[in-house]
Amino acid sequence: MFFMEIAKAKCDLLKIPNSNIKFHSLSRENSFNEQYTYFINKMKHLLNKIFYGSFKNFYFGRCCVIIFTCLLGFVETGHSQCSNSVKTFSKSWCQAAPYPTDTATVSFAIYEVGLGGFKKNQGGKKIEITLPAGFEFYQGSATANVANSIAGDITAASFTYLSASVLEITLSTVNAENAIDTIFFDNFEIFATTSGSSGDVLNLGGGNFKIDGSVTCPDISLGSLIAGPELVVDSVRVNQTNTSVINQLCGNQEILEIKVSFSGICPRAMTQFDFNTAGDAGFTQNPGTNLSNAKVYFTGQTQGFATTNLFGSANNPSGAFTINGSQSLTSGAGDYYFYLTYSIPTSSTGGEK
Length: 353
Prior knowledge:
- A 6-stranded mixed β-sheet has the order 3-12-11-5-9-8, with no helix packed on it. Strands 2, 4, 6, 7 and 10 form a 5-stranded antiparallel β-sheet that branches.
- It is mostly beta strands.
- The protein starts with 5 loop residues before the first strand and ends in a 10-residue tail after the last strand.
- The radius of gyration is 31 Å and the shape is elongated.
């Protein structure tokens, strides 16, 4: 248990610290592709002048060296050339059994960020979308659909299932780059086949439809899938991290650190803590007089007391008391930290514990 001595002096000032499918950002790739596109356009312009005689005295050998050197510079950067972006989804199945799970309906999209992202004049070309291991498409779905932007450069879009985990999309584009297009993947039904599975929905490059000049674009997650049991409590450890004297009229004084260790996969919520001001190894004398309130603060998986995130509170705690709240635990398995604080009123008795 725990105790802290109440000093006769009073706190002059109480200071409490201040309190904290989606789109993926491709800023570095976007920046690179803008530079790359600018460079290519300039080279096209330069070569047109060379081959059509605008530079009558231009030394072609030097030009080739310059172009080759510049191209090497771009190759050496090592950045992805995929400038498209995606609207993603996230789905979790939180159950230990039975499997397979019920289906969940998900939607996502791939869209251009500039003209020419979807290569022109592609007829009947394919994109293959692959689920991570442990998940399958419901191939009998009546809602699943692939569509393209209205009045865009894509003229046809359809899909079929190559297998339970691979979706094949067939697309055609006109011989022009006049519009910013989007490929919509609407209302596909997916289910989990085994517990403990997780991963990203990806384009692994099995098709031949070119986006930003590559069959592997987009090269980022189109959605995330998680299946498994909820987080379960493995252990709870309580530590008195502060044994300093508490002055009268001081609030939010750290008393206990509570470390709750979890295993499992799916998020869950912490909703209640039970405490007692009495105990065999330590106790609070006259809690009705010496304590005005108790609070619990949450710091996530970061150890260290802070009053940023209040879990819950109880006024005038005495004997057994409960603090209720609701805190989602979304960082997966591991240790989560909570901190109990007491506030000491002016009417408290100096020298007591």
